[in-house]
From TrEMBL, chains A, B:
The gene is leuB. Binds 1 Mg(2+) or Mn(2+) ion per subunit. The record marks 142, 192 as: Important for catalysis. Keywords: Amino-acid biosynthesis, Branched-chain amino acid biosynthesis, Cytoplasm, Leucine biosynthesis, Magnesium, Manganese, Metal-binding, NAD, Oxidoreductase. NAD(+) binds at residues 77-90, 281-293. It is found in: Cytoplasm. Substrate binds at residues 97, 107, 135, 224. Its cofactor is Mg(2+); Mn(2+). Pathway: Amino-acid biosynthesis; L-leucine biosynthesis; L-leucine from 3-methyl-2-oxobutanoate: step 3/4. GO terms for molecular function: 3-isopropylmalate dehydrogenase activity; magnesium ion binding; NAD binding. It is an enzyme of class 1 (oxidoreductase). Its EC number is 1.1.1.85. This is 3-isopropylmalate dehydrogenase.
Length: 356, 356
């Protein structure tokens, strides 16, 4: 199959601007590799609230479910921050992950040598860092019930439930080991098995799945220690696999090591339809100014070709184009340093598309 | 009152060696400030398992409950790692916190200028970092029920419960604001209120308590963002207040910023009897070699004088002694750098005691 339908959800804030650049790059890819790409646009997050009153309308669900993959910009902004919990833009994200059964969130934290100075860590500590966080995305404390705020006696109590079934751990462990096989064959499973029984089970199941992947090295780490080790010596990690909430926290820590959030993509896979989005947010403060960095979204499109369309050569081509533009000294504002050439969002998109 | 009884629990690994140095320093303090200190020793953790079969024996509980404060070394080690969940050394820690109602865990992460180079972060990013993490310690997901591993249909499921009552949030928020008043009057409350209802309640209660502390500045941060901000620009923080598990993770990240875990103390307060311990573990690999850094434990004893005995002048004296020994170039192995004078655990204890 050489024709794919992509649901394009620009979302809020800088979402529309950066997604536009990714589409530009996909158009260039389409031409170069002879692939037909159909884009179906839909609203999500705040944009959908404004139009339909809900962050994840049925119209959007239909568009997504009739596509081969989803490219998302970003959602949320101060305008919708004071809405009730149930209809805030974030609900759309969580709803979409669940709808797509996208249980495996892959978040690479890779340092670009050209941007070594952007890190707040010493160069010798972060040079060459290349971590893939595999975060469980559709279960755990994000989705466990009971949940809510209840009245107990004369006061209120807030409750959430951390819950993992064996099969949920098994499938995410499998993804981690498979990913590790294509990388440096080392998996660190992060849990809190000295305190939380749910992660005692997690650890046990990961060990069992590991029996089928004896070519991959496995070690276990408590989450508090992992938070330290990421700062102390990040190069010790290849693949990190962990629960939804620990993955949320640790993947952001790993991303920050690189000092350039504007570069980092993510893929949420496991179901039939994959979801691709930058790890950064909607950055409402700089929206519409043509200064946002589109590379994270462009790289997310790159991951789409590997994980949804099984064309890793396209991701490689995109990666090469990005690196070449960086090597030539072009930078958006967020990654600018002295002696480089400052370019706008549009210009960065053009440069990368041309390079393809 | 000028006489205090201190329960001394050396624990496992390097615990006994480092506690011995803290006692040395307390003896010096006792002389200098004219305070009578009675020490009551008891077993905990692996040492207690070996003797009594359980990590937190009744004998130890009695000793603790008849003391004014508890000084703990560290617990655990590979010897006891494969015991069943219920009788592992960590149970002793959790049991003790609960027994003492020590709901507020204070973990200062302060960078010593002399050790600036130990950090993996750039000097300009960490110089002057001085964060106090106030972690809720006796509730949240560490203690919520239901918990355990259950059978559901033909597979197992692991469950833990995150639960906060209003009064639990209220009292920890109060501690954070009080601590902030003695510092730089800024509190960052960390939650995941965009996903977890338990922390929606957390945020609401923190805001309500804040009404009584209008002289303190309050802001809220999601935990994933906090993990990033700690790496990006740690100097933005003064006091961080958060849940048990988030505090476990973030306090370790903050500690690692300083690059010198061997220096950092902690206090667990809120009940009648306070618990003081270094943040580092029992380091079984270097136990008995007289090379461990006793300063974290000595500093923990320092916190005891402030928080349990209301004698901040003693903590100041200990702090001054430590700084002066560092300024003279003495270092244990973990913080050694070229040009310094390498000393043993015992020697470091002697030097600090003499300085008092
Ligand atoms: C916006 C929020 C619900 C989301 C999450 O916690 O999963 C975000 O932080 C992320 O990591 O994608
Ligand atoms: C040993 C463990 C139970 C403990 C915790 O998670 O509280 C430790 O990590 C700590 O932070 O004191």
């Amino acid at each position: 199959k050489r024709e794919f339908t992509i649901a394009v959800l620009p979302g809020d804030g800088i979402g529309p601007e950066i997604v536009k650049q990714a589409v530009k790059v996909m158009d260039a890819v389409s031409e170069k590799f002879g692939i037909k790409l159909n884009y179906k646009y839909a609203l999500i997050g705040g944009a959908a609230i404004d139009e339909f009153g809900v962050p994840f309308p049925d119209e959007t669900k239909e568009v997504i479910l009739s596509s081969d993959a989803v490219l998302l910009g970003a959602v949320g902004g101060p305008k919708w921050d004071n809405l009730p919990f149930e209809i805030r833009p974030e609900r759309a994200l969580l709803g979409m992950r669940k709808l797509l059964n996208a249980f495996a969130n892959l978040r690479p934290a890779k340092l670009y040598d050209e941007l070594l100075d952007s890190s707040t860590l010493k160069p010798e500590v972060v040079k060459g860092v290349d971590i893939m966080v595999v975060r469980e995305l559709t279960s755990g404390i994000y989705f466990g019930i009971p949940r809510g705020i209840f009245v107990d006696g004369d006061e209120r109590v807030g409750i959430n439930t951390l819950r993992y079934y064996e099969h949920e751990v098994e499938r995410i462990a499998r993804v981690a080991f498979e990913v590790a096989r294509k990388r440096n064959k080392r998996v660190t499973s992060v849990d809190k098995a000295n305190v939380l029984e749910a992660t005692v089970l997690w650890r046990e199941v990961v060990e069992k799945v590991h029996e089928e992947y004896q070519d991959v090295e496995l070690n276990h780490m408590y989450v508090d220690n992992a938070a330290m080790q990421i700062i102390r010596w990040p190069k010790q990690f290849d693949v990190i696999v962990t629960t939804n909430i620990f993955g949320d926290i640790l993947s952001d820590a790993c991303a920050m090591l690189t000092g350039s959030l504007g570069m980092l993509p993510s893929a949420s896979i496991g179901g039939k339809i994959g979801l691709y989005e930058p790890i950064h947010g909607s950055a409402p403060d700089i929206a519409g100014q043509n200064i946002a960095n589109p590379i994270a979204t462009i790289n997310s499109a790159g991951m789409m070709f590997t994980y949804s369309f099984n064309m890793p050569e396209v991701e490689e081509a995109i990666d090469k184009a990005v690196r070449s533009v960086l090597a030539k000294g072009y930078r958006t504002k967020d990654i600018y340093s002295e002696g480089c050439k400052l370019v706008s969002t549009e210009e960065m998109g053009d440069l990368i598309a041309e390079e393809i």
